[in-house]
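Fold this sequence, please.
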Amino acid sequence: MPATDTIVALSTPAGESAIALVRLSGPDCPVLAQAVTARAKPLLPRYAHFSKYFDINGKEIDECVFTLFEQGKSFTGEAMLEIAPHGNPLIVQKIMEDLLERGCRPAEPGEFTRTAFLNGKMDLSQAEAVSDLIRARSDRSLEVAQRQLHGSIGRKMSELTDQLLGIMAHVEAYIDFPEEDLPAEDQEGPARDLRRLIAEISDLIETQHYSALLHEGIKTLIVGEPNVGKSSLINALVGSERAIVSDIPGTTRDFISSFLMLGPWRIEILDTAGLHDAGDAIEEIGIRHTIEQAETADFFLLVLDASLPSPALPPALIDRMTPDNTIVLVNKMDLVDGQPHAGFLSQFRHCALSLKTHDGLAAFRDDWLSAIQTGLIRSTASDGVVVNARHAAALSESVRALELAADKLKDAELSELVAADLRDAIGGIGKVVGKVDNERMLDSLFQQFCIGK
């Protein structure tokens, strides 16, 4: 689509730095490049040029590196200019003000990437990956974002569409050529293919949970009775005195949140109020918050005192805990001999340790990483494709349409009705990569991007 405005934005964070980056996109970039450098000859595209920057009044602002990109051969598909001045905020401000005075318009959040999508330089899933790449906070989230940026979701949607078109061709042959000498219509073939396709897309939808774990972190609750070592555990894991440690039961009245890395995974870990009969109204509120946090937790670390009997846990907490998402930590092993609590939640993983001496802490971390990778992280597609909530919603529309088509085939309804449902399913798949034009959806998506990207 032809551009009318030339947009400009600072693409590096505000503040002092060695180098900043100002990006422009639009039809005026070649003229502006020559004007601000005061060069007799145009800049060679895709070459870095070291030159002075002169404002509209001919005053030198800074020495910069300029890179010009031709229309059709840039990130946005339009002509682009990248200016790299020194990272002095005053210099950057003067350059930005000069470019606005020369007729540029400030870019909106995500406008560069949105322009790239509208010009066919990337599909919508790749555009989303740009934002995911910037916000990635773990090795795994970075890996998935890079794979998506390179078109993994687009290729998967193309594969699903091809399968669906093959089924449609089989069904529509009997619609378009009913009088031809075609074999008797075999409904089991398309029905079998539809069931296989429904199962494949449903498995893909399940990966949205994995996507949330990647981008938001694995929410892990430390739970247990008062004074069993919950605050000592979070301090040992985070490596700082994040929580107050005291012999007085009920010291932690509300949850305390921290982040840490466990292997390639980002963990949000919460130290919660001790579970017991509350001594006052504030403790009762803290315990209630613990139960509420358990509703949305991904993983649990249940801390027990090796020198005390096994606790009675609230049913609401027990209902959320499974062998896949829980490790039982038996603390204060320096005070006892043997294996206490061995029969308590025996089907769960147990780790014995002493947070006072740090004995067993390294082994626990290894077990925790293993539990996440073998128990919690199961919703991954066989080809590594991971979808987000928007993708999952669009694919769910396709599944509903495919199920309707399968029901119609089973009931031997008209092939025209089956084909209509199959076309709806293709439309749902198309929404994932942006083949269905929806201006409001695009506005909502790109408003979440940072300016300059």
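The first helix runs from residue 29 to 37. The CA atoms of residues 160 and 197 lie 8 Å apart.
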